[in-house]
């Protein structure tokens, strides 16, 4: 059992939240842990602290009633934590020492005594928000006491994190990044955190990350406090990006008018002055197509134009998250529109190396407003794709978000197709990006020869560019999918895939794809906590990555958190409405485990190739009593995998909850599998 008192206080058993926890159960635990070295307080003092707004008799009665409810609750769940006698209330930590019970605050206090970097990172992980963040004040002394404890814990952790990010030796770059992120999460105005992220990003060659971090810092301070970053932050930024003039740096943080270019004396910086040489060489070697997103306003004062400009910014940032495109920063794109003498797509290609332009603007027709978006091949000036979407400032926020996602998915999909067609048509020398496209085309097919061809294509990509993270992630994916398709019991190929993904992850800490592969492989290896941690990290980097959400749903199903798994797969399908078969297979597996077999079959029938999931289809039909259908799909499954045996399968399948495994095994036997 786990008791969490940081952030939203919860009690969980086997990963499931325990309902109806007594109101003062966690409050009393927090008070006993922090107020007394031996975790014991007299009944009189406890009653006075918690019910200071009543007289002594009523306070004692309220304490007795509260302890009675806690005792009944503990008996129900096999707990003996909060104990009491005629004089004292105290904590019995025997179950904690036996590792049958964990309390995040107790672990936190133990780690706080150590002071090494590993302990500090553990503190950061445990601190998910203020103590009892949703505590409802009861006009008692406890409320004031809790406020003081919250501030003390928060300030102590900030001091500890500051010590770590400023420590010259003994703390790695990645550890400093983790401490800095937590520092900003706790106090978003701590510029030391932003400076640390800028420094470590520069050390890793992630110059675009330096710029993003500085922009984030400047925007937060400007929006919330109406102040500029400290001089130390500005100077560090200029030092890390020495080719940016002070005027350009200021333009990133101060609202600027749009006078003619010659009036402010600031030259538009080319992408080469913003990106590190190493990153440029890597992009060139990989052959990544370069994209610029342009928004052409008719009237900058028009509220609809302003709203559209914000949406286009969101689209640009979404594209910037991808590692298979090189995207011109929004700042430069805006300056091209407002200040640059460039008046043709040819000029974009010559000065900025742009291969594709996304041309967007507001169009008004028949009293309605539309956002017009075109994807243009700059070399040929051919319109690759065009779309008009109804656009209105009264639309729900979620609708704008979906529009942004849909445009991003369309642009990426069409650029990849166009680039692959270009290579095949012109017989250009293959490079990393070409081979990556070849591999990506086949990696999600449930076809073993195609899967192995995809792996070879990814290996060819690495020959051209050894650290191309998308290709490394692709190789890891082919390995875990091959293991899954062959229903192997040995896990050598999974372990090999894990090593490939671990090689990819540190190369670009802001790319979620290696984390996705590590999450999936860890799930198949039965390392469930590691798996969910990888997916948590990946989702925090890119919460709109639909494929990652689908894999996260699969991991949650294997972990046994079925309702959360269903939420994740539904989110994935919302982000990617024309979903691949894999999404429906994952969703059907979750629904089958929830005994919602009709819905599971409905999911599987949406697959282009339902036969790939024949075992699950047979099991679902069998549980509905449809023997003929179950036999049909069982036969398909045995043709595709004639050596399948339930006993061997149960040894290799990685479901954390035994009852879930037993349920699936029973449904397979019901379908006629041996």
UniProtKB/TrEMBL annotation:
Superkingdom of the organism of origin: Bacteria
The Bacterial transcriptional activator domain, residue ranges: 103-241
Q: Which UniProt keywords apply?
A: DNA-binding, TPR repeat
Report the PROSITE patterns cross-referenced here.
TPR
Q: Which spans of this chain does UniProt mark as TPR repeats?
A: 512-545
* InterPro entries, sorted: AfsR-DnrI-RedD_regulator, BTAD, TPR-like_helical_dom_sf, TPR_rpt, WH-like_DNA-bd_sf
Is the keyword Oxidoreductase in the record? no
Provide the GO MF annotations for this entry.
DNA binding
Q: What is this protein called?
A: DNA-binding SARP family transcriptional activator
Q: What is the lineage of its organism?
A: Bacteria, Pseudomonadati, Pseudomonadota, Alphaproteobacteria, Hyphomicrobiales
């Amino acid at each position: 059992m786990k008791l969490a008192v940081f952030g939203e206080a919860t009690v969980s058993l086997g990963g499931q939240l325990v309902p109806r926890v007594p109101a003062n159960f966690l409050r009393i635990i927090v008070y006993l842990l922090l107020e007394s070295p031996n975790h014991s307080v007299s009944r009189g003092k406890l009653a006075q602290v918690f019910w200071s707004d009543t007289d002594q008799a009523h306070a004692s009665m309220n304490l007795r009633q509260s302890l009675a409810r806690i005792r009944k609750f503990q008996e129900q769940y096999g707990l003996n934590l909060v104990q009491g006698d005629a004089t004292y209330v105290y904590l019995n930590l025997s179950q904690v020492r036996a590792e049958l019970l964990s309390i995040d605050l107790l672990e936190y206090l133990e780690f706080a005594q150590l002071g090494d970097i590993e302990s500090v990172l553990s503190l950061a992980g445990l601190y998910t928000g203020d103590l009892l963040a949703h505590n409802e004040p009861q006009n008692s002394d406890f409320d004031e006491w809790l406020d003081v404890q919250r501030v003390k814990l928060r300030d102590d952790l900030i001091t500890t994190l500051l010590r770590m990010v400023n420590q010259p030796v003994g703390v790695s770059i990645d550890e400093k990044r983790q401490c800095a992120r937590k520092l900003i999460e706790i106090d978003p105005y701590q510029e030391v955190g932003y400076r640390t992220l800028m420094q470590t990003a520069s050390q890793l060659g992630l110059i675009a990350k330096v710029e993003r971090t500085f922009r984030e810092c400047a925007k937060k301070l400007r929006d919330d406090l109406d102040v500029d970053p400290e001089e130390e932050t500005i100077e560090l930024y200029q030092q890390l990006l020495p080719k940016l003039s002070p005027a350009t740096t200021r333009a990133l943080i101060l609202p600027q008018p749009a006078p003619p270019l010659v009036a402010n004396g600031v030259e538009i910086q080319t992408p080469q002055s913003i990106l590190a040489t190493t990153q440029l060489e890597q992009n060139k070697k990989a052959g990544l197509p370069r994209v610029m997103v342009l928004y052409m306003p008719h009237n900058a004062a028009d509220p609809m134009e302003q709203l559209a400009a914000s949406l286009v910014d969101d689209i640009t940032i979404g594209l910037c998250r991808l590692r298979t495109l090189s995207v011109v920063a929004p700042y430069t794109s805006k300056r091209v529109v407002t200040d640059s003498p460039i008046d043709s797509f040819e000029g974009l290609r010559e000065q900025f190396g742009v291969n594709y332009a996304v041309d967007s603007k507001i169009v008004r027709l028949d009293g309605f407003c539309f956002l017009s978006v075109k994807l243009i091949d700059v070399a040929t000036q051919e319109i690759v794709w065009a779309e008009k979407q109804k656009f209105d400032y009264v639309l729900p926020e979620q609708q704008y978000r979906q529009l942004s996602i849909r445009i991003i998915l369309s642009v990426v999909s069409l650029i990849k197709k166009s680039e692959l067609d270009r290579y095949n048509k012109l017989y250009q020398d293959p490079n990393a990006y070409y081979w990556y496209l070849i591999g990506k085309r086949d990696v999600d097919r449930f076809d073993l020869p195609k899967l192995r061809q995809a792996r070879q294509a990814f290996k060819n990509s690495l020959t051209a560019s050894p650290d191309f993270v998308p290709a490394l992630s692709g190789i890891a994916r082919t390995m875990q999918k091959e293991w899954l398709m062959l229903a192997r019991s040995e896990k050598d190929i999974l372990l090999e895939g894990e090593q490939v993904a671990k090689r990819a992850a540190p190369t670009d800490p802001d790319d979620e794809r290696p984390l996705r592969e590590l999450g999936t492989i860890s799930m198949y290896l039965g390392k469930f906590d590691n798996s969910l941690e990888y997916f948590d990290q990946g989702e925090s980097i890119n919460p709109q990555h639909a494929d990652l959400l689908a894999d996260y749903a699969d991991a949650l199903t294997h972990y046994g958190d079925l309702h959360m798994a269903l939420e994740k797969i539904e989110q994935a399908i919302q982000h990617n409405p024309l979903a691949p078969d894999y999404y429906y297979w994952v969703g059907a597996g979750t629904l089958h485990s929830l005994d919602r077999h009709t819905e599971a079959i409905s999911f599987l029938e949406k697959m282009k190739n339902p036969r790939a999931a024949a075992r699950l289809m047979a099991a679902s039909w069998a549980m509905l009593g449809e023997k003929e259908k179950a036999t049909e799909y069982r036969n398909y499954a045995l043709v595709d995998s004639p050596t399948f045996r339930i006993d061997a399968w149960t040894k290799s399948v990685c479901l954390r909850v035994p009852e879930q495994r037993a349920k699936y095994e029973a449904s397979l036997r019901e379908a006629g599998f041996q």
